[in-house]
Specification:
Strand content: under 5%
Structural class: mainly alpha
Shape: flat
Largest sheet: none
Length: 102
Amino acid sequence: MRTKIKKIYPSVLLVMLLTVVLVTSNVEIVLATGADAMWTQIQTLIGTWVTRLGGVVIFIGLIMFGLGWKNEDADARARGVQTIIAGAIVTAAAGMIAVFFA
């Protein structure tokens, strides 16, 4: 029973932390126009670089998949596909950056 609680504890802690972040981020604060421009610039910067990072991860996954295909290595192909999917997820997260900064 005690080991089961120890296994569940990090997950519960993460959910609680995310709940606190989501609840506190929903508070609206009136910002000056200079601060609004700064947040827009930060949003654009993060969105651009996270999209680029996702593209690089997809590219690396494609290379891994191609080399796995060349070497007839099923494990390398599977890792390549997993890396491609991970890059697609990162790119999708970058596409949702406007939701986080709304």
